[in-house]
Amino acid sequence: MDDDNAELDSLQAAYKARVEEWIAAIRKEEELASVNHSVADVDKWEQAHFDEDDARAKVLEAKAEYEDALRRKFFDF
User: Fold this and answer.
1) For an engineered disulfide with 22, which of 29, 50, 55, 63 has Cβ 3.0 to 4.6 Å away?
2) Residue 20 in contact with residue 57, Cβ under 8 Å?
3) Is the CB of residue 55 less than 8 Å from the CB of residue 18?
4) pLDDT over 60 at 70, yes or no
5) Is 22 helix (H, G, I), strand (E, B) or coil?
6) Interatomic CA distance for residues 67 and 61, integer angstroms
């Protein structure tokens, strides 16, 4: 049982870490949306959007792994 909880704890921690990375990416995009209107700044803002999108994808992947582990533990599938 402790091994099950250790796996769940690890997956939960990974999920939470990905969420924190996503939040940071959102804040970076927001920060860049508030700068001067130059081509370089627009490029940085656009890249921040792609970075945010990648971070979100990683959150969804980590969430699915954690949810799958919970289903295996509680529903045995």
Assistant:
1) 55
2) no
3) yes
4) yes
5) helix
6) 10
